[in-house]
Write the structure tokens for this entry.
Amino acid sequence: MRPMSNDIIKGQQIYLRPITAQDTELVVQWRNSASVVENFIYRKPISAKEHMEWFENKVLKGLVHQFIICRREDGMPLGSVYLQNFEEEHSKAEEGIFLGGEQAHGKGIGTEAAKLMLDYAFGELGLHKVSARVLAYNKASIRMHEKAGYVQEAYFRQELFLNGKYEDLIFLGAINQVA
Ligand SMILES: CC(C)(COP(=O)(O)OP(=O)(O)OC[C@H]1O[C@@H](n2cnc3c(N)ncnc32)[C@H](O)[C@@H]1OP(=O)(O)O)[C@@H](O)C(=O)NCCC(=O)NCCS
């Protein structure tokens, strides 16, 4: 297991800081918002209790490395980005990302956060590969991941049954060229 960094990761228009228990209310609100739920595979509403269980059992134990994306100019929290499903044997993990409000979308924030997370995964943790699973209709996420350095690797037709409909899923991956 690779311990999560406690450092702030600085970018141009944002920085990433480690998530804390005090972020619970905000994260639960973001995670349950329509624009996030409709693009996530796990659809059930998340309670503060469930999020705290995730925080204590996953984040505090180092199984998930989760950060809050903050606006650099004033520290305003905008969303969250994390690495989960670590596979030590293969030196890889899976990335997840969401922004809180739709007013934050389309300004390059997601791309910068995803890039910072790759720098962290490769530079700080020394992982070899980071992957992302994205619903095929989520064009913003596909484009954002590609801009951040991911490549589309696989297309799974009708992979998931969501809201009474089978949905296609795209698997993207980024490779560390030096480790
Ligand atoms: C996915 C998400 C993190 C992207 O963050 P963002 O800050 O909006 O992304 P960026 O602005 O960096 O990049 C988005 C890109 O997608 C493009 N885009 C947006 N909607 C699009 C669409 N319907 N079709 C094609 N491209 C689209 C944007 O134009 C932009 O590309 P460009 O810079 O070349 O113009 C954000 O939209 C989000 O939180 N969505 C809800 C949760 C989610 O989907 N999470 C990912 C689950 S896999």
